[in-house]
């Protein structure tokens, strides 16, 4: 450098020190007019331009230095730094790589390169260079922090968490990247520690939505649902349009049994992400849980249309069809699941039950038998027995007596206590004229269920058919020509009367005991004694009615209906039996069934006031005002219940 140029250079340095960057630049430019091939002057000028944020001029100056001194690695590093500042990361990487070729021993350049590669999302290369740098400068906190962030960006949360852990353990007081550390811990399923770090991140920056999101999800995984709910509320207050998170939010609400709120969030999510089958699937789960099977089916069908291979979804869909008794569709989806996994035991059980419900007993029997070769199951065992009995009765109708006999015998050999199997076998033997066996199984059926009048009536008919009466038109003669001594065992009238009187007295005593127990509300003893009385007089409609009344008091409507039906079976003209049967149907919302019973009462007893009242209520339920008014007026005509009159008169005023 010439003396004059050097003087100007020194003056420029002084002005630079005094922060007069423009004056310094002018001095260097004067010097370059005197000494235009001096790299040192261009280097100084580039540095001054950089400080002045005149980056283009700085790059031009550095390029001139490279022309004059092509092997100056630090010039390339300076150029790379400017490009990095300008966000021109590819140009920065080229400059840093040029420096690396010239001076590979300069380890800090690996950090420069890694930082630029991170910005270019070349995470794999960035990780290699960060590790190269840390191999020499292991204590460099910024490089380790950047490495952790790169691991996280590269979906290697485990290594990211490890690097953050090193930084945190080394200097927890100055550690400040709680958010990313928490996210890395969340990704590695360390939810407890993740929530700790994310809480710190939020304390430091309450507006950090990402931290709130990860914290909400961490709490959700830890089943700290109330805490998770509070975080979601903050998130949607900060970012109301963060619809991608509404799926997880909806899942939380569903887990908390906030079903309506969950459905609303799923719907909002679907508005933004209409092709995410998970949302339809989870909506289906909520609808299924709330027993809204039709909407559950609608959403499951949509989910399957988006993911045809989801076997679990098909199981759920099949079960919904099963619940609404749409067995053909249930079986359709059971079969689709079994096409993927033919050994799915639970699906095979459900398919067998569906076939059973459709009265496809033979197919159900085959499947039940197949299932029992896999493992023992009381449910399958019982269902198989029931299917055999049902198929037996179907074959009886078709006159397949040999097949029916085989099915009933199989059911009985399985230890069934169902009298219907014994009754069916009796009918099969009877049809085949195996009378001794028929009689044996009729007797067994009656012994198992003595209250079933069907069995005893049919057995009596069978005995009548098969009993042979003596032919009184022919007089038998003994070998010696004399009339034989014939003794006919007949009960004398006095003996028969005595036995009937004894039975009647015992029956009366049992009913008295049962009535007393009823008054004391000891219903179990009452039922027991009424049933004992029925064994002596099975056709006692009043006792049958009383048993039905007790069951109705106990809210056992199934048994109540059964006994009311028996009371009108043994006495079809028993008005009270028909009336009480109608009341049960009314309580079950079977309006049509109740009306038939009440109309039967009126046919038997046209002055049965409360039958008209009950019919009035039924027609009022159906909004048939004309018939309701008609029947209420008939009630008023026949009733003696003064307390009810005002109530009915009020009803009539409203209706008219």
From TrEMBL:
Keyword Transcription tagged: no
Keywords: Repeat, TPR repeat
InterPro entries, per database record: Sel1-like (IPR006597), TPR-like_helical_dom_sf (IPR011990), TPR_2 (IPR013105), TPR_rpt (IPR019734), Ycf3 (IPR050498)
GO biological process: receptor-mediated virion attachment to host cell
PROSITE patterns the record matches: TPR, TPR_REGION
Annotated Gene Ontology cellular component terms: cell outer membrane
Protein name per its UniProtKB record: Tetratricopeptide repeat protein
TPR repeats mapped onto the chain: 39-72, 73-106, 175-208, 277-310, 311-344, 419-452, 507-540, 541-574, 575-608, 609-642
């Amino acid at each position: 450098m010439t003396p004059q140029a050097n003087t100007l250079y020194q003056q420029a340095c002084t002005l630079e020190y005094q922060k007069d960057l423009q004056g310094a630049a002018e001095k260097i430019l004067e010097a370059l007019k005197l000494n235009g091939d001096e790299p040192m002057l261009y280097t100084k000028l580039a540095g001054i331009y950089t400080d002045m944020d005149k980056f283009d001029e700085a790059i031009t100056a550095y390029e001139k230095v490279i022309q004059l001194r092509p092997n100056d690695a630090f010039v390339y590093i300076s150029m790379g730094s400017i490009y990095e500042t300008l966000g021109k990361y590819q140009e920065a990487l080229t400059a840093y790589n040029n420096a690396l070729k010239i001076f590979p021993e300069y380890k800090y350049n690996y950090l420069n390169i890694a930082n630029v590669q991170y910005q270019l999302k070349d995470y794999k290369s960035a990780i290699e260079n960060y590790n190269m740098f840390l191999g020499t400068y292991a204590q460099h906190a910024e490089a380790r922090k950047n490495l952790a962030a790169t691991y996280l960006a590269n979906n290697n949360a485990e290594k990211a968490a490890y690097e953050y852990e090193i930084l945190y353990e080394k200097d927890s007081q100055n550690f400040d990247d709680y958010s990313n550390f928490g996210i890395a811990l969340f990704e590695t399923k360390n939810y407890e520690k993740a929530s700790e770090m994310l809480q710190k991140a939020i304390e430091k920056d309450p507006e950090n939505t990402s931290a709130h999101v990860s914290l909400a999800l961490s709490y959700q995984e830890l089943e700290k649902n109330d805490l998770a709910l509070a975080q979601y509320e903050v998130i949607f207050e900060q970012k109301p349009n963060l619809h991608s998170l509404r799926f997880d939010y909806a899942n939380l609400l569903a887990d908390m049994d906030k079903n309506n709120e969950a459905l609303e969030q799923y719907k909002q999510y679907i508005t933004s992400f209409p092709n995410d089958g998970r949302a339809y699937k989870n909506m289906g789960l909520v609808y299924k849980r709330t027993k809204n099977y039709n909407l559950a089916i609608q959403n499951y069908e949509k989910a399957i249309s988006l993911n045809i291979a989801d076997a679990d979804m098909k199981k759920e869909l099949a079960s919904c069809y099963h619940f609404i008794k749409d067995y053909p569709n249930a079986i359709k989806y059971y079969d689709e699941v079994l096409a993927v996994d033919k050994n799915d035991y639970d699906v095979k059980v459900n398919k067998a039950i569906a076939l059973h419900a459709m009265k496809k007993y033979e197919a159900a029997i085959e499947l039940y038998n197949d299932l029992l070769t896999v493992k023992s199951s009381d449910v399958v065992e019982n269902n198989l027995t029931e299917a055999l009995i049902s198929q037996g009765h179907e074959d009886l109708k078709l006159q397949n007596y040999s097949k029916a006999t085989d099915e009933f015998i199989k059911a009985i050999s399985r230890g069934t206590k169902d009298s219907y199997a014994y009754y069916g076998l009796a009918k099969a033997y009877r049809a085949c004229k195996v009378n001794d066996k028929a009689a044996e199984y009729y007797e067994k059926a009656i012994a198992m269920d003595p209250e079933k009048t069907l069995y005893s009536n049919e057995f009596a008919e069978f005995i009548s058919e098969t009993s042979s009466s003596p032919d009184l038109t022919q007089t038998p003669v003994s070998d010696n020509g004399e009339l034989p001594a014939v003794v006919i065992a007949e009960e004398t009238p006095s003996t028969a009367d005595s036995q009937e009187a004894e039975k009647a007295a015992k029956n009366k005593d049992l009913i008295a005991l049962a009535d007393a127990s009823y008054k004391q509300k000891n219903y179990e003893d009452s039922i027991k004694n009424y049933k004992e009385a029925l064994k002596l007089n099975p056709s006692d409609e009043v006792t049958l009615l009383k048993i039905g009344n007790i069951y109705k008091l106990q809210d056992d409507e199934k048994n109540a209906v059964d006994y009311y039906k028996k009371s009108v079976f043994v006495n079809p003209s028993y008005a009270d039996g028909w009336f009480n049967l109608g009341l049960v149907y009314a309580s079950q919302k079977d309006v049509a069934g109740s009306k038939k019973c009440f109309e039967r009462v009126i046919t038997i007893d046209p002055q049965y006031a409360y039958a008209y009242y009950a019919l009035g209520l039924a027609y009022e339920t159906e909004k048939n005002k004309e018939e309701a008014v008609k029947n209420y007026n008939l009630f008023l005509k026949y009733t003696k219940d003064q307390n009810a009159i005002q109530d009915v008169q009020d009803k009539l005023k409203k209706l008219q």
